[in-house]
Design a protein that fits this description.
It comes from Xanthocytophaga flava. By secondary structure, this protein is α+β, with helices and mostly antiparallel strands. The protein is about 25% helix and about 40% strand.
Length: about 150
């Protein structure tokens, strides 16, 4: 079976340390991730939750665990939407998101992958939803704006 991976990348005119802070600082993640804070102690195996306020109620939008972390270089974590009533909250339904950062002078190349949708329940539908919404491109544009203006 072919893999179903969403991949987006962007070049950001900011140092890698600033981009890394945007990815791992909960006060920063709220600014580009639909109002959600990324909450974790950022250690391999630790939980990661994306929490925000929706319609006046605090809600955990996404849960997962840190898979790999190399500060200012790689961050990989699993993700699952616990509010998706169609899918059971079990490891087979989690996707992996990876951020890979490369520094070139004072610029940062950021690559984000998410998948493998071919390995999860309703994977093709979930993959198509991700692709049809632009994948990570809209979020990367927001990260770029923040990194280049703050």
């Amino acid at each position: 079976m072919n893999q179903l991976i969403v991949e987006n990348s962007i070049c950001i005119d900011a140092p890698v340390a600033k981009v890394w802070d945007l990815l791992t600082n909960s006060e920063q993640t709220k600014k580009y991730m639909h109002g959600c804070e990324a909450i974790s102690d950022w250690k391999v195996g630790s939980s990661l939750i994306w929490k925000g306020v929706f319609n006046g109620q605090e809600l955990v939008a996404v849960t997962g665990h840190i898979v790999e972390i190399k500060p200012e270089n790689v961050l990989s974590y699993t993700t699952f939407d616990p509010n998706n009533a169609k899918l059971e909250d079990k490891p087979e339904n989690y996707l992996t998101v990876s951020y890979i950062l490369h520094s070139e002078e004072d610029k940062t190349n950021l690559v984000v992958t998410q998948g493998d949708f071919a390995q999860v329940a309703e994977g093709e539908s979930r993959y198509n939803d991700a692709i049809n919404s632009g994948g990570w491109a809209p979020i990367l544009q927001e990260i770029k704006k923040l990194a280049e203006t703050e």
